[in-house]
Specification:
The structure holds 2 protein chains of 2 kinds. Chain A is mainly β. Chain A has no helices and 11 strands. Chain A is globular, with a radius of gyration of 13 Å. By secondary structure, chain B is mainly beta. Chain B is built from no helices and 11 strands. The radius of gyration of chain B is 14 Å and the shape is globular. The chains are: A mainly beta, B mainly beta. The interface between A and B is medium-sized, with 26 and 24 residues.
């Protein structure tokens, strides 16, 4: 079945460490997105990519980095510069602009 | 700039009662509008979408929403709530020109009591 796979589902990180969240899709979608979800805050856009080797900052990109070397993959690195990284992270993709987004199951990151 | 306001962070209904979740949007150009549902510790699932065709949109699980341009609203309704409808619901907007990403509201938690 086509879909978006995020891994791992739960992730624990020590302060000062970088960590990478994986997102893979087999929907042949052009655009991919990373959102951060905090209780009562809705979803906030971190980064997005419309084509391979190109990506744009979203509303809260500070402390995060991404790459898009393959159409299917859009990993997110949470760096030590991110001051409050504990959150639920969601990856999504869209076939073209303005079509509905398909979401992965999320990764819950906890800093310990 | 586009934005979404969902009125009420929590809505409580009894099983069998009408569900009404409110969404108002702001957009400088004609919008595309979406409703998503999220169950605990899961991703978002599309309920329905408005893309400038019929103003009354029917979705999955008996939900529907009506686009009202004059009120800049896209409220979600279901005639009879079921226990399985208890979840968080998000309204989202995308502007229909250029390339714009989805902007989400802060969500409404629907609580259903027996």
């Amino acid at each position: 079945d086509g879909g978006i796979t995020q891994s791992p589902k739960y992730l624990f990180r020590k302060e000062g460490q970088n960590v990478t969240l994986s997102c893979e899709q087999n929907l042949n979608h052009d655009a991919m997105y990373w959102y951060r979800q905090d209780p009562g805050q809705g979803l906030r856009l971190i980064y997005y990519s419309q084509i391979v080797n190109d990506f744009q900052k979203g509303d809260i990109a500070e402390g995060y980095s991404v790459s898009r070397e393959k159409k299917e993959s859009f990993p997110l690195t949470v760096t030590s510069a991110q001051k409050n990284p504990t959150a639920f992270y969601l990856c999504a993709s869209t076939r073209t602009k303005h079509t509905e987004a398909f979401f992965g199951q999320g990764t819950r990151l906890t800093v310990v | 700039a586009q934005s979404v306001t969902q009125l009420g962070s929590h809505v409580s209904v009894s099983e069998g009662a009408l569900v009404l979740l409110r969404c108002n949007y702001s957009s400088s150009v004609p919008p595309y509008l979406f409703w998503y549902v999220q169950y605990p510790n899961q991703g978002l699932q599309l309920l329905l979408k408005y893309t400038s065709a019929a103003t009354l949109v029917k979705g999955i699980n008996g939900f529907e929403a009506e686009f009202k341009k004059s009120e800049t609203s896209f409220h979600l309704t279901k005639p009879s709530a079921h226990m399985s409808d208890a979840a968080e619901y998000f309204c989202a907007v995308s502007e229909a020109s250029g390339y714009s990403t989805l902007t989400f509201g802060k969500g409404t938690m629907l609580l259903v009591s027996p």
